[in-house]
Amino acid sequence: MRLESTLNEPTRPDQQPRTPSPRPGGRSARVRADVVAATLAEVAEKGYDGLTAEAVAARSGVHKATLYRRWGGIDGLVADALTASADQPWPLPDTGDLQEDLRRITQEVFSVFTDPEQSPTPTALISAAQRSDAGAAALRDFFTARHHQAAEVAERAVTRGELPAGTDGAEVIRAATAPLYYRLFVTGEALDARTAERAADAAALAARAGLFASIPTDPEPDTAPNTPDQ
Amino acid sequence: MRLESTLNEPTRPDQQPRTPSPRPGGRSARVRADVVAATLAEVAEKGYDGLTAEAVAARSGVHKATLYRRWGGIDGLVADALTASADQPWPLPDTGDLQEDLRRITQEVFSVFTDPEQSPTPTALISAAQRSDAGAAALRDFFTARHHQAAEVAERAVTRGELPAGTDGAEVIRAATAPLYYRLFVTGEALDARTAERAADAAALAARAGLFASIPTDPEPDTAPNTPDQ
Where in the sequence does UniProt note compositional bias of the Polar residues kind (chains A, B) (predicted)? Predict the structure, then answer.
């Protein structure tokens, strides 16, 4: 049985995706890792419309009844694959310069989503997550977590005196990466390395000008942005 | 018969969406306007998964056979609704100041996509377009057309001497609006008026610094952005 026929029905309380709480290294954790890997592989190959609990069960070696009981169904599997992805370590650049750190972050996004080897899985996962409320909630949590993790590059810049105190680091990261995701997932326009670099540069410039400080200066057209102390 | 069962099949050449070439004011143009309006209403109410040629036919008063013949099916209807939307006049601000013009543009995007009255149709149309190749192509053309239309605010700023010659106006518009669409259609994070304003300000700052000039200056961390002449 495919789950898709039930996708547009209202979710009943007992169908809410359940995120397992694995004991690290335990059997539950291994089952989850296998199921997440199988879900990622299936969604990359077949997309949301081709995703079935049968195929995830076959690929992971986990019984379909277990998938339904622990994940609630396809949307819970997609959501948990995102949750698991958010937990993956994500090494941040630390070059000592905000602009260079941001360039490396946008270069990483550019590489992941334009490399034919790397791009299918995250691209399919994001698209699949947009197809259900559970997926959309996991997607929001995933990006919010990433923004706050990566905010560290802005926080270090504040510590160095490169950015004003009170700068919203997550907002700096959003500013740097939004022009890339905008092309990739909204307009479908071409994305190149120069665009990725420029997005980082624009975000660094705005951050230095205090645009992302929590008590924003009100930049007037004829006010020159702050220049860094260095 | 619903068309959805055929959506994931390869498109045969005779199923390619055909964009009618209406004679303005003629019967063909009226038929197209009725069909586009019905498609927009249906997609806003029911989403892509609930969109049927029957319902568009019933709502528009145009025979289903005509819809298939002229639009090829659901995806052609969605694509043509976008094409028709791109042709709608879109009044641009002209305040004499780039930053203020950009603020009004991002405020307009913010208003349209967060107003419960206005947002359902464009939101559903964009989501529906992402579901097929024909829709994705129309979506890309739609945004590219909008970017180039709105580029006029940057071109005027170049004429006024507010921006460097050779500034890519469409890129300035992308920079200003991307942070909004990123939240609306990728991360699902909350969008507020302050974020919309700040996105405009950051784009204006980057444009003034020459980041969107065709022969980009290479901004160094310790180089102050250009200040406008005024």
Answer: 1-16
